[in-house]
Amino acid sequence: MNHSATSRAPGRVELLGNHTDYNEGVVLSAAINYAVTARGETLPERRARVNSEFSSEAVDVALDGLDLLAGESAWANYSLGVAVMLREENYQLGGFSVQLESNLPAGAGLSSSAALEVATARLLMKLYSLKIDPLHLAKICRRAENDFVGVKCGLLDQVSSIFGKKGQAVYLDCRSEEIDNIPLPPDTALLVFHCGVAHRLVGGEYNERREQCFAAAAALGVPALRDVTGEQLEAARGRLDPLIYRRAAHIVGENERVFAGIEALRRGDGKAFGELMFISHESSRTNFENSTPELDALVEIARDEPGVYGSRLTGGGFGGATISLVERSRVEEVARGIDAKYTARTGNRGRAYPCESADGAE
Ligand code: ADP
Ligand code: MG
């Protein structure tokens, strides 16, 4: 008899700690109340069937020897990749069908890809009674994206989708893989605002920033920028190329802001946390140069809206979205205010996603 199950995995938003992952640094995020749901059942035949309301192309492939799909069906690679990685690790997996539903916008920087992987993984765990430790599960999902789909991403997306907690942020140390939950200020909401302009120069700019960070670490004689304090960086400033210095200043500053942010959260000080978010954005704008005029406009507008504690670009940058920490009772009002002013100022149509922090995958 076919066995059926359902799973759900949320998206996430980065709150502080921008581009710190590949510098072996620290980051704060939150899982959000937008998620991918996967319903499915075991199949007697060794096939993988994947459907999504996202696409009219249904996928039905042999489970043995799964290959990367191209073209219209490429979205299914995130799910298939999870099956591939589970099998590589010798988990006993038979045929399955999965139907995906989502209210998580794809490509908006809210990590729909990780949610898709985690939802699939949780579903397969239920269908085939697999026991996998949560951190190990995050790594399996990351490998599906890195090694099967072929997209470089850090562990944060999958960790957030698995370790998120309602009312709490997720802390990840990308070097030690320590994970913790830190309470967010009560009565706050998270407002994601997508700038409505496609990512610019994706890939090229991102890889260039990585290389510049690695060059900075090499010039400073450390394995990664994680190993440098603000004081050490200032002491070495004179012998660094000015551009490399600024790139390093962003990463070093972000790591320090994550630790300061945790202290602020532990004190319940939303204002102090928000101020760190504004400083983070300013550092993106001037040091890391991964902001855009649209993201700058969104942060400037947010700063003047009553009820906003802080605002910054979130994720890679070069387009995408901002995240603001907002008084919960005002979030709809703030979203409308930013929307109107942003369009008036830039001529672009943005899109607001008022969010709450949420529990990780079931
Ligand atoms: P992000 O993770 O920031 O949303 P990505 O580019 O990493 O952006 O992942 C988006 C991709 O994930 C989409 O192009 C699509 O292939 C896949 N995807 C996201 N949501 C769904 C869904 N509901 N059904 C099928 N595929 C999806
Ligand atoms: Mg993604």
Report on this structure.
By secondary structure, this protein is an alpha+beta fold. It folds into two domains: 4-14 and 30-162, Ribosomal Protein S5, domain 2 (2-Layer Sandwich), CATH 3.30.230; 183-355, 2-Layer Sandwich (Alpha-Beta Plaits). It contains ten helices and eleven strands. The strands form two sheets. Strands 1, 2, 3, 4, 5, 6 and 7 form a seven-stranded mixed β-sheet that branches. A four-stranded antiparallel β-sheet has the order 9-10-8-11. Helix 1 crosses helix 2 and helix 9 (293-303) crosses helix 10 (331-346). The longest helix is centred in the last third of the chain and has 25 residues, at 242-266. It is globular. 49% of the residues are buried. The model has no long low-confidence stretch (mean pLDDT 96). Bound molecules: adenosine-5'-diphosphate (ADP) and magnesium ion. Magnesium ion (MG) is lined by residues 111, 113-114. Magnesium ion (MG) binds at residues 111, 113-114.
**Amino- and carboxy-terminal Cα gap:** 24 Å
Number of domains: 2
Q: Percent of residues in beta strands?
A: 15-25%
Overall structural class, as computed from helix and strand content, comes to alpha+beta
Largest sheet, in brief, is: 7 strands, mixed
The top level CATH class name of the largest domain:
Alpha Beta
Shape, principal axes of CA atoms: globular
Order of SSEs = EEEEHEHHHEEEHHHHHEEHE
CATH topology of the largest domain: Alpha-Beta Plaits
**CATH-scheme architecture of the largest domain:** 2-Layer Sandwich
Low-confidence segments: none
CATH superfamily of the largest domain: GHMP kinase, C-terminal domain
What integer is the average pLDDT?
A: 96
